[in-house]
Specification:
This protein is an alpha/beta fold. It has a domain at about 40-255: TIM Barrel (Alpha-Beta Barrel), CATH 3.20.20. Helices cover about 40% and strands about 10% of the residues.
């Protein structure tokens, strides 16, 4: 009887340990479900950078930008990759370019998106001026980005000149997503936001940039705003997935700025954007209805208040 009791105690202990265990990349429901994450009771494993690299030539990688916890929660079940882009400077802060975005801003929004997601791989942009000076500067700021946001990787714009930096970071444990073609952080030297690769020599340069970044160890590369034939050629030539934006359906994946896709950003609409909703219009209509109710003293109604004050005895 004592032996059976001891076996029962051992079994109960092992079950308790399994319930409390947290394996790398596989967080128990008892921990992850207490916050903003999964409420279904099933274990969730976040998609990793190597898993995305392995999808080269396979199922297209679905990517959208996200900047806040609520939006990350809405998008997480549907995408493979959440990109915290420095496009937030234009979309959220009203800047006319991405250049004023700071490292602190990217860290704050990156951490918010990480908190709101449990499945998608989270990649955060390194902002202008945070990595171009030297490999040491890039490493120092990328380490801070990963430590303070919990993101899976950082993204950097650049070609052949940036390849040594990419290699430096990857060799030290920091996954890097590249970005070639139209590079918004270089808008002043590129002369605007026009599509790239029209001329043969320009297209050859972008191809060389993509090859250099891939060979430096990037796990994937964003190809933005280039001629369709060039995007297809880059995708066929390099060994890591290409994520297209204004490029080609032949890329290994696609990304859009979520506010563009939802019709929330109305300052301008790039040619490559497809609107899947017109939420900006819906927001305006809802605000107008609310304003009318307030001015007409129709809100709050009886169902929105806590009742009349009781007279004190």
């Amino acid at each position: 009887m004592a032996e059976n009791k001891q076996k029962g105690l051992i079994k109960a202990t092992m079950m308790a340990l399994r319930r409390l265990s947290v394996r790398e990349g596989d967080v128990s429901v008892h921990l992850s479900d207490q916050g903003t994450g999964n409420q279904s009771g099933a274990r969730q494993t976040r998609i990793s950078c190597p898993e995305l690299t392995a999808r080269k030539g396979g199922d297209p990688i679905v990517c959208l930008t996200a900047y806040t916890t609520p939006m990350a929660q809405l998008l997480d079940p549907h995408v493979d990759l959440l990109m915290v882009g420095d496009s937030l400077g234009m979309v959220l802060y009203g800047f006319d370019s991405t250049l004023p975005v700071t490292l602190d801003m990217m860290i704050a929004h990156g951490a918010a998106v990480k908190r709101g997601s449990i499945r998608a791989c989270v990649v955060v942009d390194m902002p202008f001026g945070s990595y171009q000076e030297s490999t040491e500067q890039a490493y120092r700021n990328a380490v801070r980005m990963m430590q303070e946001t919990g993101c899976s990787a950082v993204k950097m714009e650049g070609g052949r000149d940036l390849a040594p930096t990419v290699e430096f970071l990857v060799r030290r444990g920091i996954p890097v997503m590249g970005h070639v073609g139209l590079m918004p952080q270089s808008v002043n030297t590129l002369g605007g936001y026009r599509a790239r690769g029209r001329a043969t020599d320009e297209g050859a340069g972008i191809m060389a940039d993509a090859i250099a970044i891939a060979e430096a160890g990037a796990f994937s590369i964003v190809v933005e705003g280039v001629m369709e034939q060039l995007a297809v050629a880059i995708t066929a030539r390099i060994s890591v997935p290409t994520i297209g934006i204004g490029a080609s359906a032949g890329c290994d994946g696609q990304v859009l700025v979520v506010d563009d896709m939802l019709g929330l950003f109305s300052s301008f609409k790039p040619r490559f954007v497809k609107r899947y909703a017109e939420l900006g219009k819906a927001v305006g209509e809802a605000a107008a209805a609310y304003a009318a109710d307030v001015r007409g003293r129709n809100f709050p109604g009886p169902e929105h208040i806590f009742g009349a004050m009781k007279k004190s005895s």
